[in-house]
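SECTION: protein entry
WANTED: fold as tokens:
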Amino acid sequence: MLTEINFDGIVGPSHNYAGLSLGNLASARNFGKVSHPRAAALQGLAKMRANLERGLAQGFLLPQRRPDAAWLERLGTTTAHASATLRANALSASSMWAANAATVSPGPDTQDGRCHLTVANLVTMPHRSHEWTETLAQLRIAFADAAHFAVHAPIPAPFGDEGAANHMRLCARHDAPGIEVFVYGVAGGPFPARQHREASEAVARIHGLDPARTVFARQSDAAIAAGAFHNDVVAVANERVLFTHELAFADRDALYAELRAKLPEIEIVEVPADAVSLEDAIASYLFNAQLVTLPSGEAALVLPGEARDTPAVWRWLERHVAGNGPIRHLFVHDLRESMANGGGPACLRLRVVADPATIDPRFMATAQKLGRIEALVGQLWPESIAVKDLSDPALWNTCLTARSALCAVLELPELDRLPF
């Protein structure tokens, strides 16, 4: 039976605050601070466990091998001899934000009836541009059933593609045909636009989507300038609900009209700028919450603690839930380590609509499996990392050893052996 599964990225042992992401205000603001990889991973795992307990299907993706010595080798250097900037890029744990792993089109939307996944190329940011090789390897293992899945290599450069963070799907039910919305940006402001329309159009063609049920929407310049480096920082969709900031899109009236024509039952929940400013929305990651459907059929938001701590945001949420709006429940989680590096609850997960029985079970979460991961994290993940520690060979060895141990615990030795 088709259901939505959230595949969360397990936070890797090299999680640090090297400030590598231009346009990501939280990443820049916390540059140079001491990170806490163990706490970060445990916070993410706690969110996964809570979603399991809520009756939601939950999977995970493993952290990537860091430092990425193969990437440095292709640049003619090594971990020991690389510049501080290259070394930081080779040690980034940014694959934890699985919303950037790929764009996913479920079987009900595609020409051949299979779920299609195209791995994001992430070419705009050096620290993320080398993630795709291992992401592709993981997805081809997890979704190896060719009768139900097609996993595609990235769109070629120079067309930037940052995956599901710039893609939304609207539908009556997860297992029904949907409207797929690709959100792109246009360069020219103070920060780069990371999603190119050409990349989105290519993904739609590769996935075999019906042009009549595919929408391309431009992100507003104001949102990008305010620090909305991905669409999921200012808008999120789930089934028939679009939850969005008033200033998320360049031409919201035209977009809303097109969506209503294609999906008459759509419910657009727009947060006015005079109630919640773009600055408050981005700082609190209000729209980077997970908008999910509970087993009861009710919609819920899985929010970071920062949303509750931002008065304007929390006032709006409480008013909405107290009224007759479609979002009925608010669940708050401490994800401060991820938030400090610029990623909220929705950044940590990739949504896949599929039959769980068709997925490699090693990537599916259970309470017992999460317990084994938590024990390993508590034993092997560094407690803290300062930026100066990135030059320490002992840290490199710790990170590689911890990841190898995780591959062993999850019975995925092939991920430890692959020559990325």
Q: What stands out?
A: The mean pLDDT is 95. The radius of gyration is 20 Å. The chain has one domain: 3-417. The first strand starts at residue 3 and ends at 9.
